[in-house]
What we know:
7-stranded mixed sheet; globular; Aspartate Aminotransferase, domain 2; 2 domains; alpha/beta; 370 residues; Aspartate Aminotransferase, domain 1
Amino acid sequence: MRDSSAGLPAPDDDRLLMTPGPTALPPSVRSAMGRPLVHPDVEPEFSRYYRGLLDDLREAYGTDDDVLVLGGEGILGLEAAMASVLSPGDEVLCLANGVYGAGFADFVEMHGGEPTVHETDWRTGFDPDAIEELVADGEFVAATMVHCETPTGLLNDLSEVLGVLQDAGVLTVVDAVSSLGGTRVPVDRIDVCLGASQKCFSSPPGLTTVSISDRAWEEVEATDQDTFYTSFGPWQGIELDPDEPVLLPYSHLVSNLYALEASLEMFLDEGRDSVFDRHEAAAERCRSRGRDLGLEPFPAQDRCSPTVTAFEVEPSATELVRRVADEEGVVLATGLGDLEDDVLRVGHMGYNADLEKVDRAMDALSTVLD
């Protein structure tokens, strides 16, 4: 019989996964996935469980808006947002200072919209005045943006930008996949706020999380839904009767939900402020150690994310990542696209926002660079 696990880490492997998602899993999260399944369509226990999970998620988001958990990796949320609110010919403003911000335009086009890409320097944030001029001249149904551009470690300050768009009546869609749970996200000004299980919540890949404002639901209701799996529509108004099974749009990823519940419990037990302070401390340690090695972050100093650091490196980032993994047992990441060989990324999010883990990762990088 073929050994399907050949080359994969053993359960007791001591390698350190310090990528910007997926992260290493806490023991309680790994254990939670082993619970016996509850059948959502048959057993009312799931309805009670699921309602509690959504309450925890709403608290983690810090919102009174509806929250959803979709069965699919975080990129599902980006496409579903566009599929759910766009009609053919709708104009969408795509704010881009990185790979994922620019990539929103592809989803807009796939679902019949007309994107206007406002691309700015990948090392700095957006200018609210420039965006105010754009929305004054256009007829945008929605605007898309990314809170943390994971490939470059840039965190956008979106508060003023969201205010401009809100005042102009433009629906706001924000990819907060690699920031939600690791730093403050201005959810109160966001109509559709997208997250994922495998980043700062340190759960396995496989779940998309969403908060949806009343205004966003109105847009979903007014839009012909020509997809099913990538639509928010089927999730609206689901009743969670504690004494009845719940009919979800499809069979949910129950084991992944168990893992997310365990992750949210850890987050809420620690407390939001404490979690965010821990991420800031881990980020500062990483950058301080990087400066000692002669490495500087890719973004401007005031735009560095507390969840991931992207260092500019020479020689090749690809070769450095390979050697750090092979020789030191620490898994880091390169940049993406044109920056693949120029940027080395250290993830310090969720379970990995830990000073000892950061030190081990930077010790490994130091050894290889010597």
